[in-house]
Amino acid sequence: MESKTYLSEALLRAELAELIRYLYRKRLAEEIVADFETVFARHAALEDRLNIMAHWVDFFRAHKYRKVMRRRRPTHKERMTACAACGYPVSHRHHLWDIATHGENAMTVQVCANCHELYHLMYHALARDSHYSRKLVIHILSSGRVPPDVARQVLDWCRATLRYEARSGWLEPYKTSDEWLEVTLYWSQFHDKEGAG
Ligand SMILES: [Zn+2]
Ligand SMILES: [Zn+2]
User: Is 56 helix (H, G, I), strand (E, B) or coil?
Assistant: First the structure.
């Protein structure tokens, strides 16, 4: 029993130091770790030390979680990358894998504000059954202002995400089907006309 408690003290202490070194720059991290060692040295009772460690490990774990999840600011180079769908000279960084689930990640595509909005409207129409988004997508597609190949490219990204989510069990598989696309967005009315002509 005694040795088990000492083991958990060693593990907690190691995790605490590891979290601090993850969260802070080298010199500051070592100072903080040293401060904790001073605090622990002042507490003779093992239980007191364990309580202090448990409290701070929880605190730094939450801190680390927020840091991992934080969306980083795009660089100028990224902003000045042309839209990958329509070629507009300035773009946003869209995450194909959402940050809430995956944290900041490299699965991104550069799209201009309009194509970016279209993507999210398509996504909400197809994945979330949003009637509101669906109406807007149909309005955009029927305007004739978005070239078919641009709409097709945005849709392809959207459907890649839908398929990924369906494979992961987060989305009903039928939402990745051509039938669903047709029922939801009347896709063939605006596209694939070359096939009919
Ligand atoms: Zn664009
Ligand atoms: Zn986005």
Answer: helix
Percentage with pLDDT > 90 across the chain: 72
Protein residues with C-beta less than 5 angstroms from the ion ligand 1: 83, 85-86, 88, 112, 115
Residues, CB within 5 angstroms of ligand 2 (ion): 94
- Confidence check: pLDDT of 196 > 80: no
Give the domain ranges of the chain: 2-69, 76-196
pLDDT digits (tens, 9 = 90+) for 75-90: 999 999 999 999 999 9
Ligand 2 centroid – CA 62 distance (Å): 25
> Residue 117 CA: which ligand is closest?
2
Ligand 1 centroid from CA 180, angstroms: 25
Cα 112 to ligand 2 centroid, rounded to whole Å: 10
Residue 31 is predicted with a pLDDT of: 96
For 61-111, give the DSSP string: HHHHHHHHHPPPPPPHHHHTSPPTTT--S--EEEESS-HHHH-S-S-EEEE
User: Distance (Å, rounded) from C-alpha 184 to C-alpha 134?
Assistant: 7
Cβ proximity of 50 and 8 under 8 Å: yes
Structure confidence by residue, pLDDT tens digits, 35-58:
999 999 999 999 999 999 999 999
